[in-house]
Amino acid sequence: MIRIEHIRRHATARPDATALVDGPVRLSWTDFADAVGRCAAGLTEQLPEQRPARPVRAVFLSGPRWELAVLLAACATLGIPCTGLDPAQDTDRLARTLDLLGPSIAIVSAEHAPVLDAALGTGARELLRVPLDPPAESTRPSGADTAGGAAGPNGRPEPGAHVDAPRAAGATASPAPADHAAGRPEFAGRPGPGPEEPVRPFHDLLASDSPRRLPEPLHQESLAVVPGGSRPRVTVRGSAAEGRALIDLVDEFGFDAHDTHLVAAPLWQPLSLQLARTLLTVGAALVLDDTGDAEVLAALIAAEHVTTTMIEPGALGRLLVHPDSAAPGRAGRLRCVITPGRHLGRWTVDAAWARLGPVLHLALTSPETGLAGLLTPEESQVTRARTGRAVLGTTVVVLGDEGEVLPAGRPGRLAFAGPHVMDGYLDGEAEFRTLGTGAVTGAGSAVGEDAGEHRFLVTDDLGVLDEHGRFTLTGRACGVRAAVRDRAVDAALFRLESDLLNLPCLRDTAVVRVSLPTLGDALVVPFIAVAVGREATGYAALRTACARRVPSIPAHVIAVDHIPYSPTGRIRTAELLRAVVPILTLNLQLEQTVHQEISA
What we know:
This protein is α/β, with parallel strands linked by helices.
């Protein structure tokens, strides 16, 4: 996140300009600088005794909100890497991730505090807990009585209603209670921290004295958790590459101080945090949304004159079917919508163009590669799904089985180099390969390179480069369960899903291979029809495509109302199967019963 010296620079140039908007809370750059300084001073009081023992690291479990943005900036100012954690992951995996990171500070909102407690168990004695919410007894009622305006959706005041957060000036001037006017969820009944666990609530940190001089930063690294896999992995990046990556993002998207950026994806997603940091660095305003509600998002985009946004795929799908989503497109201010695009298909692209205008950018991103590829609105009209152009500063090559660089048109493993790419894993080794400029240039790389050698991260993604430097994902080199590993079938399934994503008669779909007693070795293909009453078209199209691409495996096609996505754009397979497998099993049993009755 942005450091305090950059915040003070903007506060000097534009002291009253808006930096953060969260419901009724609006922080100017001056307020933002003051709050970050006080929180940094409050955290510093806790750090000296912990420095010699281990690296000082922080984690957070919270949705986008102004208190979190202040604390992230305070941690960046102190050089403390603050890593976001997905609260939806299972408790055991979260506990193992915490063991790997070994944090000294945990920033947590009330709604996610039980998740942190369950993961920590009895090992929380050396952890400084920073709750974002004030104690329950100090809260105010939500809605119009507190905000001084008409209450909007979910009890929040209408977007655009101006409610200034008072500047922190001692214990009586904390803006934290105003947050409850924004409809923050309350949580009661959580067991309190143990007697030996230190706690410094956010509103206490905000009441610290403004520092005359902050200490030197402790570390120069950033960490990000990799979703999925058999064990937790954490990527590491040095801060030296952040400046180059920031310049590349500004050149890529044209960000400047006149932008208003809506954060509609969790800040624990690396790309969401990186974009928020970039926009703040150039002096743009951030509008934070923690609801994911389509009505709220549409109202925010219109009322706050949003120009750019990072939005998670699930929220984007809900926004595109909401009647109010066409208003931002008619206003003409929204110019850039960025979302992870690995599983998004033709309907999303076409609906976004029709309702929002030519603004949707599909990002191909991972914690290891950062923002690796981008499909612009114009390119998405003529290019298949899962295709991207390498972003500025990034080079992509395709490697063969022997590690040789392949020419355009030859499939192989994708490898990436550039400032967005990680330095390595915190605990474990990644596959890197050093290539000379001659080899890279002769291989159809996506962008031009400087002279010298380049260190490429070799990924598990399979793909192919075309003559224009665009790469298309064609499969995964590993990560498939041994029981179902079959490279030919795996490639066919990936091509099948890519075919289905390009069908205009479907809003969304997924392809999942299962091996269950009730269904056997089969494909489960849930889909969302493009409109009510169009399910028959979807059934016919999917069955035909499955029979053509993977004729050896029976396919069970089922219409659904919802396909669950994680904020990173990954389909939550387990949640999806829990919803559809019982229905498929029942349908199969009914078919068998009817068949037996007819035969009798």
